[in-house]
Amino acid sequence: MKCTVGALSALRNLFLTACATLQILSSLYLYKCSVPACAVLQVFTFLDWRRHRSQSRYIHHIQTIRESGVVRSISRPVMIVAALSAVVAMYNHLFVVKPPWLPAWLPSPLTVAMEPIQLTTIALSLLLVFRTNASYARWEEARKSFGAITTTSRDIARQVLSWLPNTNEGREAKDTACRWLIALAKSSMVHLRDEHDLRQEVGSVLLEEEVARLESSGNRPMYCIQVLSHIFSSSGLPFNLVVCLDENLTRLVNAVYACERILGTPIPLSYTRHTARFLMAWLFCIPFTLWPYSGWAMVPLAALISFVLLGIEEIGIFLEEPFSVLALEHLCGSCAECIQSMRRSDTEISERVGGKGLQVQ
Amino acid sequence: MKCTVGALSALRNLFLTACATLQILSSLYLYKCSVPACAVLQVFTFLDWRRHRSQSRYIHHIQTIRESGVVRSISRPVMIVAALSAVVAMYNHLFVVKPPWLPAWLPSPLTVAMEPIQLTTIALSLLLVFRTNASYARWEEARKSFGAITTTSRDIARQVLSWLPNTNEGREAKDTACRWLIALAKSSMVHLRDEHDLRQEVGSVLLEEEVARLESSGNRPMYCIQVLSHIFSSSGLPFNLVVCLDENLTRLVNAVYACERILGTPIPLSYTRHTARFLMAWLFCIPFTLWPYSGWAMVPLAALISFVLLGIEEIGIFLEEPFSVLALEHLCGSCAECIQSMRRSDTEISERVGGKGLQVQ
Amino acid sequence: MKCTVGALSALRNLFLTACATLQILSSLYLYKCSVPACAVLQVFTFLDWRRHRSQSRYIHHIQTIRESGVVRSISRPVMIVAALSAVVAMYNHLFVVKPPWLPAWLPSPLTVAMEPIQLTTIALSLLLVFRTNASYARWEEARKSFGAITTTSRDIARQVLSWLPNTNEGREAKDTACRWLIALAKSSMVHLRDEHDLRQEVGSVLLEEEVARLESSGNRPMYCIQVLSHIFSSSGLPFNLVVCLDENLTRLVNAVYACERILGTPIPLSYTRHTARFLMAWLFCIPFTLWPYSGWAMVPLAALISFVLLGIEEIGIFLEEPFSVLALEHLCGSCAECIQSMRRSDTEISERVGGKGLQVQ
Amino acid sequence: MKCTVGALSALRNLFLTACATLQILSSLYLYKCSVPACAVLQVFTFLDWRRHRSQSRYIHHIQTIRESGVVRSISRPVMIVAALSAVVAMYNHLFVVKPPWLPAWLPSPLTVAMEPIQLTTIALSLLLVFRTNASYARWEEARKSFGAITTTSRDIARQVLSWLPNTNEGREAKDTACRWLIALAKSSMVHLRDEHDLRQEVGSVLLEEEVARLESSGNRPMYCIQVLSHIFSSSGLPFNLVVCLDENLTRLVNAVYACERILGTPIPLSYTRHTARFLMAWLFCIPFTLWPYSGWAMVPLAALISFVLLGIEEIGIFLEEPFSVLALEHLCGSCAECIQSMRRSDTEISERVGGKGLQVQ
Amino acid sequence: MKCTVGALSALRNLFLTACATLQILSSLYLYKCSVPACAVLQVFTFLDWRRHRSQSRYIHHIQTIRESGVVRSISRPVMIVAALSAVVAMYNHLFVVKPPWLPAWLPSPLTVAMEPIQLTTIALSLLLVFRTNASYARWEEARKSFGAITTTSRDIARQVLSWLPNTNEGREAKDTACRWLIALAKSSMVHLRDEHDLRQEVGSVLLEEEVARLESSGNRPMYCIQVLSHIFSSSGLPFNLVVCLDENLTRLVNAVYACERILGTPIPLSYTRHTARFLMAWLFCIPFTLWPYSGWAMVPLAALISFVLLGIEEIGIFLEEPFSVLALEHLCGSCAECIQSMRRSDTEISERVGGKGLQVQ
After folding, report:
1. Across the interface, do D243 and C243 touch by the CB < 8 Å criterion?
2. Which of B348, B164, B177 is nearest to B249 (CA)?
3. Is the CB of residue B306 less than 8 Å from the CB of residue B82?
4. At what angle do helices C298-320 and C114-163 cross, to 10 degrees?
């Protein structure tokens, strides 16, 4: 019976210690919780690629570890695991040293065999990596969908510029279309991000009155597309070409709603939560398994293990909402620039190459 | 021969105990089985994302563990595994303590080596995670397909509004088309869910007589598309534009049947069942392997292991039928709102931008 | 030298025993080999989904284990592995008991260390699960391709019904097109399945003479599409609409040949065979590794391990040819029903909504 | 110091033995190296599927092991690993037996602990299986792309046959188009395979002069498409239908260049080579790790392990260039047959169904 | 307390040694860091495939190991791990030999148990292999996108050649279009690579003045497409055909921006960095775990383990920016050649087949 009592009291103590630790730490933990600003918002250049591939990247990775958003985000839970490890190691150490002041009724060392934990390691690793991959797929789809908005805008600009005649009326229609295409990209950005102000973004391309109308509309990107749709249907272009422009508008509608879909639907919460709970339970068990293998080295080891696994989970969460991670300003800016540069070179090209323009048949 | 007899009787006892346990528990188990209501039916906002990424999410995950549908669903099988573990642990404990009243003929402790079980752990983890991923892929396809219905509806509304003339007849056709587009989204939702009532959903947009006709039709979403098809073909629009509208109708047909396909075809049952049986056999073996490693700690460990693995399987089952998990009401509502807001702003835009409208050529 | 001789004779005996066992069992094995009839051929309803998710599914999985096609298919190889385990266990048991009649020259117990086998477990598990996933991808593509046939047929019916005029000639063309669309779905099913009779399937929709012509054609689904193609090109519809119908016909051609491609090209045989041989070699080694860990418990353990792994392989083979697993009859039936119901409601809708029909421009 | 010297000399001897073995074996190895002819070039029928699923497949897999191309390809490296294992086992065996003639200065047995090797097993298995999957994806894409050539050819034949009038000129154009469509499929096959002769393949469908022209052109499939393009643009068909035909020609161009892309770009060589080197280093280490676990049984075990892993790599290499594995002749043949059968039944169908043909509008 | 002091001083020494080693090595390491030139820039021929599959490939892989870019790239970090291993081994060896000059206060041997490290091996392997797969997916998408540019250029050339009349004006338009199509492919290459000079690449196809205009434009590939757009809209072709050409231009725009997207957006840096840091921490721990298993053999083993894992990471980095790895020059060259050969054979084909050309309707 002594053995049972010993085991039971060991369990009780294990839980009591854990609960107290959790209580104290969670209050400290919540003291200040903020989402770190992410800084991955520029587009890669050739120089960046050269650095990215350079052999010095390993040293760079070590040097930047303190500035990393992921590392800062997970530093608290990692420290909690390390603290728990230290408590467990101290307790177990006392049993080896057996100082005279140690009460005799204390249960045996806090250790759990590692083998049962190992049984779940594969499932945990797979879940974590697959979840991160699902987030990465969302990130990539978001990049493609927002890219579809800016690319299709350029394509529509190209069509409008080469099809509309260079009469006064045609020139005005070209200008209006270009302005609204730029406004579409920018209002999509505002729609998908929390921090932007619509008036500030589109103020330079739209008229004051248009901005007000746009601002008061229900779904702003859709309003821009509706305006474009009306511009094209009343442009006097032949129906074939109107249809061709309309196909591009349909692409824009699909791209805008693909972005909205990604923003509005996270990976099913039960999936995310189960993975996180699995990871937390697993990380909570780890400190109790390491003492027989590593002694005091278990503290850095537990910190390391929790660092790498929590890091994978953090990246998964981080990429799940991709619009705050993507360089949307840059994409909108280069789209606007490209449309304006096409507008500028339009007259020159049309004079040289296609002086005659579209011929009514 | 004694050894054989011992081994055989151990096996026999193992099976008898297991059968009795199963018998008793399965009757208790089936006492009340209900599908838990899932509550993941709203769309994510910026605030939700901020919470989702916050460092306090770990504490939130612990606090909400009791409200989680997945946890409630798997609580029974987890408790069964824990109870089995407790029985095994008690039996094995008796052999260590050897109380005088223990009959001598009882077989040796109930333990099986862990190594043979470990051989199958990788295959089990892979199967579970891949199956969950297949369910997640279904969920994502369902989200995209239903999204295609609402997005294409908006796109058709845009086309109709900018192409039809603002004559009385044209305005009426615009109204009718918008009404039937909203009815399509709502009747698709009713088609894909069990709990909705068609009359209640579309009563506000369709006339009484139309609702009756729709209700009595074989396939309701298809009926709506057929009506739209007739509206467009008799709208007097040029053929090019009729074809362009028809392409969007084809997209609607494909999206509706993609949803129906997902609802009608689960992941092949042999796949699902084999995974579940594999998991059940594996979880049944686990309690017999843990005693030498963990002693009484095997009870929480077995509960933990079964919790994480059954949870993965439960999520796979949960996401396999995605329409009861997706926020279809919200999607339909925002689609209807968008179409109505486009209808409202149509006159204003067409007056300002495209006063002339489509010109007959 | 004694050790070498011992090892060599152990090896020799191991192989001799294995060969004899294989010889005897393979003749028994081939006594009656039949492909079990698969019964997964209906479409899921809401009730099925409720059962599918119910907590009582675990008990259901146990109860139906005897009716499962997969279990019946793999019962023989599982029994062979179990029998081999029993032989090995008996042999090894004799060495523990050492009965006096045991000849002294018998080699040492038949055991192989488990560690070398474990080195290949990950590769085996990955191969098995990936191969099953490849089969699942084929199954899903088949479902989508056949679904494309039935969905596009409905879409063509919708187009024809709303575009052709309600004159006598137009009505006749509508009827003919609907009949051939139904015939297309049914002859595709006959084309992709072994067991159906064309005449019986399409006898109710086509005329006697048409059936004969269809039956004698080289590729029957293609013949139906060719007929439809001629119907549309001579329908007198404007070219824009003919082209629009033709795009749907192109989709039908692609869907029919996607199905034919899946049926005609299995996963490369070298892949399938290497996986199967790997699994067989691995399962053959397992019984020799389990004795030191499990004693007589190795017999159920070996049966269990072979059950789960052979089951995964069997499901992979089972899903590789998906058309005998999919509910093609149901799909064809609901397609035919939908087309007929659309045909019925056509007059009513066209009278109410689009009284004027297409206007020649 | 003795220990160091012992360890160092063990290492030295290990490397010397390995080098000598490699030297001798590589010369033997290169004695005759040929790519085995692959025989997987027919299309599956219902009978094949029945056999494929039959329970007797396991026995069939054993019986055909000697005829398998993969097995023959990897037999040499497997034998090398087995020979190396035998040498190591013999050396280690001598240390157990300690014959009197054994020189005293020989280092300790050639063994390396298995644990460090196991650390890399997961990465190796994942790399191998993922690489094989990448090859399988190439194979599938090749199958789909070549299938797109033959399917789109049939679709173009269908369009041409139902659109061109049955005048003398129209009939001639139909014949020419059909001939060039067949020539396209065949010249694509010649383009993608090494062994075929163009003149022999297309001699039966094209005129002598046309064959010469085709033979001397830069890119033969593209030449065929160019000819078809000219035929259609001068066919006198309405522009809508010319555009519809041209969309199919665009599909053909894309399919031809997709095939060319697969043929011209292997999986990045660094990926392939690193995987192969990883595997070779791993297999070289294995024989040194097995002695403590398996004694002389390590020879068959090492052969088995190298067989399964080299087999996976071999299949990856084998499927990477898919055109020599696919049944291209069969696909071309059935495409030609289908086009010819459509040509034959064209008159009959057009007389019965669409007597009027396309009406000029 | 002695034990604690011992463990702590062991830890301190471990860290001090590691820091010093890192300090010294990182300065040596950064002495000269250059990106190795990659040489995988040709297209595969039948001969290459034969060699690729030949059984002599294993020997070839060994022979080329010194020329491999990946091997040269990772040689430094591998050597660092090997050097660290040697230091650890030497230190541990001293404790076994216990030379008299060894100070007594030195802590115990530098070893950490392997089991805690093994817990993270699966997650590390999965992360590495998945990251490499994500890079491979980027590589494949880049290949397809650039392929879409060259393929669509050929397709446009085909359309232009078969649709424009063979009048003087038509011939000139054909020539101009072909020239700008070639310029598009080449300026896309210049846009996506760092090392090329635009003037040198397109100097042979464009006029001096055109080159200057192209060079000064904002986005050069887009400028080419804009010019093509104007050429087509003023070509006098019927609107249907202009639309058909425009669809191909839209494809070009999408392909160009898909390439730009891949170049501008690497895999999220947090993902890449976390994987690299995980790998570095893991590889740093490995040398401390190997001594009890392998003694001095740990030096080559640690080198081998770091070689294979760093190699996987290096390939992931290498394929992440695919345009410097793909044979873009070859693709542009064969595209230009194909367009020119089509231009040459155009007159001949059009005379023989389609003498009449497009007929105005």
Report:
1. yes
2. B177
3. yes
4. 30
Surface-to-core class of residue C193, CB atoms within 10 Å of its CB (0-12 exposed, 13-18 middle, 19+ buried): middle
The whole-number average pLDDT for the span C41-50 is 77
Amino acid at A128: L
d(CA E112, CA A298): 9
The reply to whether residue E231 touches residue A354, judged by beta carbons under 8 angstroms, is yes
B271: nearest CA partner in chain C: C315
Out of B274-288, C258-272, D31-45, D233-247, which region has the weakest mean confidence (pLDDT)?
D31-45
The secondary structure of C9-54 as a DSSP string is: HHHHHHHHHHHHHHHHHHHHHTTS--PPPP---S---HHHHHHHHS
Looking at the partner chain, which of A120, A233, A250 has a beta carbon nearest the beta carbon of B357? Answer: A233
**How far is D54 from chain C, CA to nearest CA, in Å?**
6
Chain D contact partners (≥3 CB pairs within 8 A): C, E
Most confident of B24-33, B189-198, D230-239, E133-142: E133-142
Q: What was the pLDDT predicted at C6?
A: 55
Dist CA D126 CA E127 (whole Å): 11
DSSP 8-state class, residue D80: H
Measured between alpha carbons, how far is A301 from C293 in angstroms, rounded to an integer?
31
Which residue in E126, E218, E282 is closest to A338 by CB distance? E218
Q: What is the pLDDT of residues D147-190, one digit of tens each?
A: 999 999 999 999 999 999 888 888 999 999 999 999 999 999 99
Whole-complex ipTM: 0.87
CA angle A296, A297, A303 (to 5 degrees): 115
Interface contact D239-E240, CB threshold 8 A: yes
| Alpha-carbon distance B177 to nearest alpha carbon in chain A (angstroms) | 17
pLDDT of residue B126: 93
A110/A125 Cα distance (integer angstroms): 26
Cβ pair A281:B293 closer than 8 A: no
pLDDT (0 to 100) of residue B6: 55
Q: Tell me the CA distances in angstroms from B256 to A50, B191, B205, C42, C238, one per residue in order.
A: 48, 10, 20, 20, 28
Cβ-based contacts under 8 A for chains C and D: 234
Residues of chain A neighbouring E268 (CB-CB closer than 8 A): 40, 136, 139, 315, 318-319, 325
Q: What mean pLDDT is predicted for residues C28-38?
A: 45
Distance from CA of E246 to the nearest CA of A (A): 8
> Which residue in the block uniquely carries the two structure tokens 């989709």?
C251
Answer whether C275's CB lies under 8 Å from C131's CB.
yes
Phi/psi at B204 (5° precision): -80, -20
Residue D357, Ramachandran bin (φ over 0: left; ψ between -120 and 50: alpha; else beta): left
Q: Which of C174, C184, C259 is nearest to C223 (CA)?
A: C184
Among candidates C69, C84, C67, which has minimal Cα distance to C29?
C84
Which distant-in-sequence residues (6+ apart) come within 8 Å of D193 by Cβ?
Answer: D323, D324, D328
Which residues does B65 contact at the CB level (< 8 Å), separation at least 6?
A277, B71
Structure tokens at B319: 């996401």
Q: Is E293:D115 a contact under the CB 8 Å cutoff?
A: yes
Alpha-carbon gap, residue B135 to C205, rounded angstroms: 38
The string of pLDDT tens digits covering residues B133-155 is: 999 999 999 999 999 999 999 99
Q: What tokens does D161 get?
A: 């046959």
D278-304 pLDDT, tens digit per residue, is 999 999 999 999 988 888 888 999 999
Single-letter amino acid code for the residue at A283 = L
Specify the length of chain A in residues: 361
| C283 vs B57: CA distance, rounded Å | 45
Cβ distance A59 to E26 less than 8 Å, yes or no, reads yes
Are B10 and B107 contacting, i.e. CB atoms less than 8 angstroms apart?
yes
Around C5, how many Cα atoms within 13 Å sit in the side-chain half-sphere? 4
